[in-house]
Amino acid sequence: MIRINLLPHREERRKAQRRQLGVLAGGVAAIAIAITLLVHGVIAGYLSAQEDRNNYLKRANAELDKEIAEIKRLQDEIQSLLSRKQIIETLQSDRTRPVLLLEQLVNQTPDGIYLTSLKQKGLRVNVTGYAQSSARVSMFMRNLQATEIVENSPNSPQLIEIKASNVGGRRLAQFNMNFSLKPTLSQGEEPAAKKG
Questions:
Q1: What backbone torsions phi and psi does residue 158 show, to the nearest 5 degrees?
Q2: Number of C-beta neighbours around residue 187 at 10 A
Q3: How far apart are CA 141 and CA 161, in angstroms?
């Protein structure tokens, strides 16, 4: 019987299998590394694109913030100009008020009444004077209430005081009264302009 030593052959086969396993493991490792690098590259590309988008949005937001600040500044400037315009319109409409007031006082003062002082503070007017009788003061108040410029309310005109007085040897009624003027159209609109 012939004896054959198969140990070197088995040993060579094992070495060949180990080499194949090493090559296969190296190939798998190379493929894994290639896939990892590819995935990393794709993700890095996505991150870079997203970062570019984020930077673009930041720049666009900064520009919009500047535009919003400019719009706010323009709105404030417009509001300031509207307020000035309102004041000018009020002054313009109030320019003729003293003339109208004096004209109405001349036309509505009945005979027998003598005015000694006239004071105006805002829309409130104070009148003092002398009358031949208290009935003439009542007539004067009714006449004022019927005018276009005097506000028709329970407190306007309002008699503050009436008393008997001797002036130049004559017995007269000395009176003190207040009345309110009607606000002009622009003054009436002023609260609505402030709301807007």
A1: -130, 125
A2: 17
A3: 13
User: Helix or strand or coil: residue 66?
Assistant: helix
Q: CA nearest 180: which of 84, 154, 169, 170?
A: 154
Q: Cβ–Cβ contacts within 10 Å for residue 178, how many? A: 16
Q: Give how far the C-alpha of residue 85 lies from the chain's centroid of Cα atoms, to the nearest Å.
A: 17
Domain residue ranges in the chain:
7-95, 96-183
Token pair for residue 107? 């036309």
SS3 43: helix
- Which CATH superfamily includes the segment(s) 96-183? General secretion pathway protein M, EpsM (3.30.1360.100)
Statement: residue 190 has pLDDT above 90: no
Closest CA to 117 of 104, 100, 130: 130
Q: Burial level of 157, CB count in 10 A (0-12/13-18/19+)?
A: buried
Q: Given its phi and psi angles, is residue 168 left (phi above 0), alpha (psi -120 to 50 degrees) or beta? A: left
The size of the chain, in residues, is: 196
Name all contacts of 187-195 with Cβ < 8 Å and 24+ positions apart.
187/90, 187/93, 189/86, 190/86, 190/90, 193/82, 193/83, 193/86
pTM: 0.50
Q: Which pLDDT tens digit goes with each residue over 17-69?
A: 999 999 999 999 999 999 999 999 999 999 999 999 999 999 999 999 999 99
